[in-house]
Design a protein that fits this description.
By secondary structure, this protein is of the alpha/beta class. It has nine helices and eleven strands. The protein has a six-stranded mixed beta sheet with strand order 7-8-9-4-10-11, sandwiched between helices. Strands 1, 2, 3, 5 and 6 form a five-stranded antiparallel beta sheet that branches. It is globular, with a radius of gyration of 19 Å. The two termini are about 30 Å apart. The protein binds adenosine-5'-diphosphate and magnesium ion. Magnesium ion binds next to helix 1.
Length: about 250
């Protein structure tokens, strides 16, 4: 589904991502792991259109997407969540999901003062779909709460709901379990399985090794911007380079 070929990103003298080539298979959960500062988020930013790589290509379903704008990447079928939570904290939970759907709606209903009956029908349908996404992540009881009032773990779920609301083929999750307690992590594990069942492919950056090793079909390990290893979770757990650079240092 997604292939990157020798993607490189430089910030001045620092090469944050150094010739990284990975494959993401459709209908799988692929993990991207590595120590802090390894270049994981920067790599995500190249896929989602936040950064244009200095060199290398990003190919999604056969089309080059490197250098495309974030909305173009989203329209092509990729959506994402952020390591640093990126919600509209004063808007309610349901409205935050509507923001994710907005590009797909025909009329700009959020700003329209005068609405035709067909716009009203479209708006009602949008609210209903947004509510369905809240149910999907089990946040329906919080629909009218301000997003900023949710616990950290629930805000991460809301980001996932908003991201799914754009009906992507591929979702990029940047540290979805960060700030979650162990019960929330178990629920996230179940949610990831439901996302796969929807037919959505997952590429995930995550530090929680229990979650990663349990749910990912395939892993890529970044260290200092370079791809250090790739393989199944058991191959990665037994890889001496990985143990040295990352797992052993935990
Ligand atoms: N916008 C930026 N400008 C300069 N340096 C950056 C920027 N973003 C990230 N970096 C640097 O690039 C490296 C990789 O960062 P990042 O991709 O956030 O790593 P990770 O997500 O693996 O923790 C780090 O050394 C970081 O300080
Ligand atoms: Mg990061």
């Amino acid at each position: 589904m997604l292939t990157t070929d020798k993607v490189t990103v430089k910030f001045g003298g620092l090469t944050a991502v150094n010739q990284v080539s990975v494959h993401v298979e459709a209908h799988r959960i692929t993990g991207l792991i590595g120590p802090n500062g390894a270049g994981k988020t920067t790599f995500f930013n190249c896929i989602s259109g936040v950064y244009r790589p200095n060199s290398g290509s990003v190919i999604f379903e056969g089309n080059h997407i490197e250098g495309k704008k974030p909305y173009q990447v989203n329209r092509a079928g990729i959506s994402r969540t952020y390591q640093i939570i990126n919600l509209f904290k004063k808007m309610n939970v349901l409205e935050n999901v509507l923001v994710g759907m907005h590009p797909r709606l025909k009329s700009g209903y959020l700003s329209d003062m005068f609405r035709t009956p067909s716009q009203r029908r479209e708006e009602k349908a949008a609210y209903e779909r947004a509510y369905e996404w809240l149910k999907f992540v089990d946040l329906q009881d919080h629909a009218l709460d301000p997003a900023g009032s949710l616990s950290y773990g629930k805000q991460r779920l809301l980001e996932i709901a908003r991201s799914l609301a754009s009906t992507p083929k591929l979702i990029l999750l940047d540290e979805p379990a960060a700030g979650m307690n162990s019960k929330e992590k178990e629920e996230l594990d179940e949610l990831l399985k439901r996302i796969l069942e929807l037919g959505v492919t997952v590429l995930m950056v995550e530090h929680d090794m229990k979650l990663v090793m349990g749910i990912c079909h395939y892993l890529n390990v970044l260290s200092e911007g370079k791809l250090l290893a790739k393989g199944t979770p058991s191959e990665i757990q037994n890889n001496p380079d990985v143990i040295q650079a990352y797992l052993g240092g935990e």
